[in-house]
Amino acid sequence: MFDRLREDVACILERDPAARTAWEVLTCYPGLHALMLHRVASASRRQGLHWLARFVSNVARFLTGIEIHPGARIGRRVFIDHGMGVVVGETAEIGDDCTIYQGVTLGGTSLTKGTKRHPTLGRGVIVGANSQVLGGFTVGDGARIGSNAVVLREVPPGATAVGNPARVLHAEGDARREDAAAKMGFSAYGVSQGDDPVSQAMKGLIDNAASQEHQIAMLWHAIEKLSLRSRELPTDECVPEGAQTSESFDADRLSRLMK
């Protein structure tokens, strides 16, 4: 029991730069308190004391704002950062070394009793703030789930899931694409300058279309100007018969290109 507690304190000191001392972590971190009370509730449930297990779980929710069902299985060195609003369902499983931020729901989409209704997180998974992982699938080892994502299907190991509904970004091709998009002012992680990624993409398309319209308008203006100048030139006196001025030639060429 005390070995697990020392591990929990050490992992918080390692992952949270705001944590200064072990005493501060022990007394001021609700994520740690929720995990400690969950172990009591889980042990009570295994001994058949279901009411006591649920009662301890409700006390933990009242004290910490974190709701963990006594039936959930939680590994070692799990860090629930901030934690307010975190909900972990009955059949959920959380692997070792996972990090879960505030507002996360590990929920189910089925009402059938006795089935695997809630997700399984592998080792080292990071679940961003306010994201929802819903269903009895597996999130692979080392996967990342972006903030506000709604994950409804399996996430491969090492991949990143972002968006609503979440899409999976694979390690190589999608990561390269994300880097290139970020250089153009678009980020799928929603960390752009005060705007969401879909809006940023739409703004980019609108700006591109507006630029093209401006270029087309300038081209038409140049064509009309050249045509007007070619009509004003005295063709019978200054220009030999059968010859073309440079302006009229350019206007004719542009007209043919536009057709």
**Structural class, from helix and strand content?**
alpha/beta
Main CATH class of the largest domain: Mainly Beta
How many strands, what sense, and barrel or not for the largest sheet? 6 strands, mixed
Query: What is the number of E strands?
Result: 15
The CATH homologous superfamily of the largest domain: Hexapeptide repeat proteins
- Poorly predicted runs are 186-195
> Outline, from the CA principal axes?
elongated
Assembly type of the chains comes to single chain
| Helix content, binned percent | 40-55%
Q: In percent, how much strand structure appears in the residues?
A: 5-15%
CATH architecture level-2 label of the largest domain: 3 Solenoid
- CATH structural fold name of the largest domain: UDP N-Acetylglucosamine Acyltransferase, domain 1
How many H/I helical runs? 7
Provide mean pLDDT, rounded.
Answer: 82
**How many domains, as an integer?**
2
- What series of H and E elements makes up the topology? HHHHEEEEEEEEEEEEEEEHHH
**Strand adjacency order, main sheet:** 3-6-9-12-14-15
The rounded Rg comes to: 31 Å
End-to-end C-alpha gap: 82 Å
